[in-house]
Design the sequence.
């Protein structure tokens, strides 16, 4: 039986900034919701259910902040569900909205959220609390030290250098310079990145994503609803998830369950969404990718997990320009997570940006002729992964 499709009919995203002193947390959610509503030709009463995208709420400084979100999204008397899979929260939320519709429970679902990472004090101190208090927290682990270990391992296995990592930053900053919503928009050279201060070897300041504040929202609807009203839409044709062990110590060494260099669980999530979408040769069938990569080194294993390069070959291909706008398969044409990271909605923005690309609405960072794209999200201690194929 042919599965009914789920379409994306509205997208709203803030201009992401280091701080949004002008807007409270629910104001930021509302800002994105209003933008998504504007694009969708719908009224609030048309929305059946809300999926609320909220990762660890210590970032926004309000415990169980989804309670505040109910009014911000107009959810009174509606179905309401909070999702949290760390950095993957945004793509998990779009997936939960998809499942509401695919199950037949709802016709029109909104997913929305916001984050104020730039206003949380010190994200690394907050994020350290996600690790086991006895075995891993005291190392000390933060997202940067965790993914620095991944960088060391990837460099050891495949020969990546710090200059190669810098080349990812140069590409993404160029892309972000074309995206008015991106947080870090200044273009850089490899030398600029190399000269920036060391944070956790080999990751330097410019190899890091920033701490961003802003909101995101998307509206999804059933194929029947869209066709009956002759609405404009792009389509989610594949989605996949996979999770990994909590203990990162179990992902290293000679007897590993999964090597921290390679993001095997992410690869499985891509395989699942490609199978559903009928993608058999991603390098030929995917025109654009928005891959969740918060630190420069992680873009390489994300590209390889997405099947856009053989394992260990993405460094060379990136340097040849294959993933830059104008190249064969542009990766993160929005500037990606490396230039903007409001954690609760970052993975939603990956999906939204791919949707805008295949819709032909991405503005100055549009990939010419893009009709099929893929998005991903990573969260927890590199533990939860989600992927999605979007088609025009
Ligand atoms: C699943 C996931 O998403 S994992 C990722 C989750 N997110 C994170 O882990 C956030 C990672 N980033 C950070 O923690 C911080 O940005 C850090 C540690 C890299 C830097 O923070 P700090 O040392 O406190 O820098 P601080 O905020 O004081 O800023 C100092 C300067 O560096 C700049 N800066 C801060 N972060 C970055 C960055 N990532 N890249 C480039 N410049 C930056 C600031 O704009 C500021 O510039 P200015 O002096 O010209 O105004």
Sequence:
């Amino acid at each position: 039986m042919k599965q009914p499709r789920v379409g994306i009919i509205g997208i709203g995203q803030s201009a992401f900034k280091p701080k949004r002193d002008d807007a409270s947390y629910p104001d930021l959610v509302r800002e994105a919701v209003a933008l998504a509503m504007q694009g969708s030709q719908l009224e609030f009463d048309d929305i059946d259910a809300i999926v609320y995208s909220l990762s660890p709420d210590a970032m926004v400084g309000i415990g169980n902040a989804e309670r505040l979100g109910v009014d911000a999204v107009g959810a009174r008397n509606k179905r309401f569900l909070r999702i949290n899979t760390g950095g993957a929260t945004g793509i998990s939320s779009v997936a939960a909205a998809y499942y509401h519709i695919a199950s037949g429970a709802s016709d029109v679902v909104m997913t929305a959220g916001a984050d104020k990472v730039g206003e949380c004090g010190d994200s690394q101190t907050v994020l350290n609390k996600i690790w086991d208090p006895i075995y891993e927290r005291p190392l000390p682990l933060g997202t940067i030290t965790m993914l620095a270990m991944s960088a060391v391992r990837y460099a050891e296995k495949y020969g990546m250098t710090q200059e190669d990592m810098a080349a990812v930053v140069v590409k993404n900053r160029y892309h972000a310079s074309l995206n008015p919503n991106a947080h870090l928009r200044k273009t850089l050279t490899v030398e600029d990145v190399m000269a920036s201060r060391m944070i956790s070897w080999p990751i330097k300041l410019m190899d890091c994503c920033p701490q961003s504040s802003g909101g995101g929202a998307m509206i999804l609807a059933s194929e029947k609803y869209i066709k009956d009203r002759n609405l404009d839409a792009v389509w989610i044709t594949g989605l996949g998830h996979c999770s990994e062990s909590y203990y990162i110590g179990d992902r290293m060494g000679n007897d590993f369950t999964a090597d921290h260099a390679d993001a095997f669980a992410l690869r499985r999530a891509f395989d699942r969404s490609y199978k559903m979408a009928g993608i058999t040769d991603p390098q030929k069938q995917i025109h654009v990718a928005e891959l969740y990569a918060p630190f420069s080194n992680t873009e390489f294993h994300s590209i390889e997990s997405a099947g856009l390069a053989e394992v260990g070959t993405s460094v060379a291909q990136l340097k040849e320009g294959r993933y830059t706008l104008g190249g064969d398969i542009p990766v993160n044409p929005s500037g990606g997570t490396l230039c903007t990271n409001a954690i609760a909605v970052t993975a939603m923005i990956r999906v939204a940006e791919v949707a805008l690309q295949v819709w032909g609405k991405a503005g100055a960072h549009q990939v010419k002729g893009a009709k099929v794209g893929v998005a991903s999200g990573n969260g927890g201690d590199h533990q939860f992964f989600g992927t999605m194929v979007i088609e025009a």
